[in-house]
Amino acid sequence: MLDPSQYPWAMNAMAKTLHGVDLHKLQQFVKWAVYSLLIVNFGFYIWEDVYRAIHTLHAGSTLFDWTTEFATTIDTSAWFILLLMFELETYLLEDAQWKRWVSRTVRGLRILCYVMIMHTVVAYTGTLIKYTPTLPVVGVESLCDLKDDGVSYVYNLEYTEVDADTCLTLSSDTEFFKLGHKDPLVTNEAGLDIARQLAWADVIEVIVWLVIVLSIEKVVRLQSQGVTGGGLMSTLKRAKLVSYGILFVLAVYWAGLGHWLYTWDTFLWVAGFAVIEMNVSEWRDELLEESTALSESAAVPEQGR
Fold this sequence. Notes:
The protein is an alpha+beta fold. 70% of the residues lie in helices and 6% in strands. A five-stranded mixed beta sheet has the order 3-6-7-4-5, covered by helices on one side. Strands 1-2 form a two-stranded antiparallel sheet. The longest helix is centred in the C-terminal third of the chain and has 45 residues, at 260-304.
């Protein structure tokens, strides 16, 4: 009786078809569906940045203030480009197509993406630092005392301009706090706590995603050198698993605050990078097959002797 393990090409063929379903085509459909949904989410984030900027930016805002308010748009753009670079490197382009100019272009775009992401780290960290001091609004016992000051009230990322029509409905508290020294934003004590927590969540999230993408980068570099296993590979795998676990906790936290878009977006991006992980896994299997074929071909002459 034939041993299927002696014919890896046959096992791969069986693995790619299950009950008449072409698993490769199914994987491609799921991949492009995920990418399409991520583009839709990107549109929501652009609108969210515009909505927030209307309430936070003013005539004295600097260029960095502007880029900070649109940090999510900048950040997501960078992640999209990185995702495309990984797709090119792990699936779309064959080794023969990986010309010198292609390599340089990909490297340049990747560096640009990391610069954009580091801007997000700085921007989010700056927001966290800005929210750390407790800055009471002096001489105010009601939001209506601020109705002519051109400020907005924020609670759980909901921004509302304070005027004669809204001041009585936004909060009945008698103590309010500024969110930063320059921004025309005020909130109550509970709102300040939520703003700080969300600022921490933003910083943690972008750092965790950096760990994930740098781990994938290292795996891709190692596999391009023919390395498919070992201690470093295991460490990188564990780092990614822990990082995905942290993202899951953040997704649950955002859902608890009613930010379902953030929760949905997190799972979509995890799915997007899971697609890249599948590409890397298929690439690793191809390398192992090539290594096995070379070993078998080298062993044939020895058996002939």
